[in-house]
Design brief:
By secondary structure, the protein is mainly alpha-helical. It folds into 2 domains: about 180 residues, no CATH class; about 60 residues. It is built from 13 helices and 4 strands.
Length: about 290
């Protein structure tokens, strides 16, 4: 997985290597030029450059590439589907990464095969698939692909001049090993999507280059207003959808300046009578203050 190399996360600036310290100073200068109290500050020259800093695209030398990025954003057109979103990320941004080995994971998006794979994962996310179904689909997908499979840190072999083993020969694995690989890779890929791709979703939204429904689906896993409000309130997406579909009579929503939900106490007894998962019941009890 990509390591979070954001220099701003290191509190002691004097302990940073010079290159990292300069990178941190650049981020500070662009985000708030008053912080460092120096005469000469660096600043982004384009709105997309500034937004790239605010969304923490630390893998790109933004000041060096911002004009090219700005031109590419304007030329790309509107993003209307998941495939288009991933192509946008790859062509407009990932192509500007100078150190492909350092950011190997996200640089894979320059490959059409990798983009197709992540498009599949994002569609599964929108389906709110349970883990068991995702494992079955992962294994089925890899069975169909066959040959040498990329599994990241769980690999046995190197490939394409890699320094680390990131691949396995799928046919060498038993059914149990395949299922275990699917489980750990699902977790890795979910983490990757959250840490590496979510910020590009937000950036595309701020740039107003993505259809609103697609943006909401990628960000929240749904475009339903009430589900989104529950997610913003802290509920996970699967439970939010389930509550509104099956327990809507126990949930009231009050819109306004400070939108809020009111949960009726009977919801917990109703969930228990329906043999709901105890974790879900506990989450409702905790989040609803019952």
């Amino acid at each position: 997985m990509d390591v979070n190399d954001n220099p701003l996360l290191t509190l002691s600036n004097d302990r940073l290597p010079e290159a990292a310290r300069e990178e941190a100073d650049t981020f500070l200068d662009v985000i708030d030029p008053t912080v460092r109290n120096v005469e000469v500050v660096r600043s982004a020259r384009t709105s997309v450059g500034y937004l790239a800093f605010t969304h923490n695209l630390y893998e790109i030398n933004i000041l060096e590439h911002e004009r090219d990025i700005d031109q590419d954003v304007r030329a790309f057109g509107r993003i209307t589907d998941i495939d288009g979103f991933l192509l946008f990320v790859a062509e407009v941004f990932i192509s500007k990464i100078d150190d492909n080995s350092k950011y190997f994971e996200i640089c894979r998006l320059q490959s059409g095969g990798a983009r197709a794979f992540y498009a599949m994962l994002l569609r599964w996310k929108l389906e709110h698939l349970p883990l068991s179904q995702m494992v079955d689909r992962f294994v089925a997908y890899w069975n169909e692909v066959g040959g040498t499979i990329f599994v990241g840190r769980w690999g046995d072999y190197t490939q394409d001049n890699d320094f680390f083993p990131r691949y396995v020969v799928w046919s060498d694995k038993s059914d149990a090993e395949k299922a275990n690989l699917a489980i750990v890779r699902i977790k890795d890929e979910q983490d990757f999507i959250e840490s590496a791709l979510s910020k590009y979703v937000d950036l595309a939204g701020d740039l107003d280059v993505i259809d609103e429904t697609l943006y909401l689906n990628l960000k929240y896993g749904t475009s339903d207003d009430l589900e989104i409000e529950l997610i913003r309130a802290g509920f996970n997406g699967v439970l939010a959808k389930h509550l509104l579909q099956n327990y809507s009579t126990f949930v009231e929503f009050f819109s306004g300046e400070h939108a809020e939900f009111l949960f009726h106490e009977g919801i917990l007894d109703e969930m228990r009578s329906n043999s709901e998962n105890e974790i879900s019941i506990f989450e409702v009890k905790l989040m609803a203050g019952l």
